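Sample entry (179 residues):
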Amino acid sequence: MSQSKWILALVSLVVFVLPLAFGQSQFGSLNGTVVDASGAVSAGANVVVKNVASGESRKTVTNREGFFSVPTLPAGTYQVTVDMKGFQKWVGSGIILNGSDSKTMTVELKVGSASETVEINALSQEVATIDSGEKTALISSKELQDLSLVGRNATEYLKLLPGATLTANSAINKPAYDG
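Predicted structure, serialized as tokens:
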């Protein structure tokens, strides 16, 4: 009888708890389209995404539609360099990726020699997340430090998120069911 309880507990653990483990990711992805000054896509452009903190670089080349994708990037600050023969080198820095982010950017190359460089400094708000139905928000460490909690209930942090509501217990910091 005890062996069947262990098997039932293991199956319950796999079925109910394991899907919750995949809810958060420490990786993000950076996608983009490379175009020229007229708006035509630029196929074959070299794209280098460099993690500023670690110095790790990931290289890719745009496809026929001028699209590039660099998945599974660890959360951090990145510098993106795009170069193509006959165009000025484009450098974008200060691009911040958080866990589970999927950011898309459009890079416009200008005609010029390869020795010329166009440098762009971007804020994290300027690199847009598009084509996503997900509703996400980021609670910064500064917000967590400045937040005064009533009690030790971690769900108090959720009240910071836009659109979050606590209706099961009328937003009172106590369990919804005490039976």
